[in-house]
Amino acid sequence: MDGNVIVGQSGGPTSVINSSLAGVYKTAIDRGAKKVYGMLHGIKGLLDGQYVDLSEKINSTMDIDLLKRTPSSYLGSCRYKLPEISEDRETFDKIFKILDDLDIKYFFYIGGNDSMDTIKKLSDYAIVTGSDIKFMGVPKTIDNDLAVTDHTPGFGSAAKFIAATMKEIIRDGLVYDYPTITIVEIMGRNAGYIALWCGIANGAEDILLPEKYDYDEQKIINNIIENRRKGKKHHIIVNAEGIGHSTSMARRIEAATGIETRATILGHMQRGGSPTCKDRVYASTMGALAVDLLCEGKTNRVVGYRHGDFVDYDIDEA
Ligand code: F6P
Question: Which residues lie with the beta carbon below 6 Å from any ligand 1 atom?
Fold first, then answer.
């Protein structure tokens, strides 16, 4: 690599976002990068001049390995959407000035939808201004909602944790001598992948998904009453975060059925558990592949996984 590298993490943390970082870092060093910088708190931190020289922090193969195996975002994250170029060129000028001062030639951003939007805008700006900096997106999100990619690292690990937790909730719901209903609210923003997979895996009686926002509460209540009539003691409803309102839903269902109904909102505990093997391997492989692709001269791309193969595709599609 004939210049310096910068890498950032953005959006909600996952169990394996650091595995992607380790993949980028190790491959960049192996490929001869002079310096590998890390943005602190993503593009927002970079705008404030916050970055570190990663080679001062990561000194051995053991350090890389530890990074690869540690959940949550080592570099810190942000929730920040860049403005439209036409509305605010100043922000972009500022970012590119920082990148030029650091002699950055390769820019990697690990994240979900908003992060791909950041890569897209920066790539567009590079084209407009004739900058030779190359940009690559590395996918991660527990929501599994990035276009083109079949699997986003972080999804499986979150699903594994949630499915195991739901099993405990179901056992708990069965201990009393009276029937109970539990609504489990699962993350995913406006995507229902985790809710769907965990709901099916645990045999939930009802699964409410934002993609299919036509649920009929009366139908659920009738279903509960019918199941109760057949002797079923516990009824579990998986509610995706994109629908939300689990607590008020629980109150209404309890009033209508006379059965104790509780809402369990899993919240932030869903993102940082121990990863699945697949997630960790895919995350570090995608990080490494991102570096290889930029070295081949590609830019404005995103790494993905499609039909059994690691692929890359245009940032516009992501
Ligand atoms: O995008 C990942 C995600 O975990 C979503 O499922 C969820 O809606 C969001 O992040 C929550 O983010 P925050 O960290 O702002 O609570």
Answer: 11-12, 79, 112, 141-143, 187-189, 241, 271
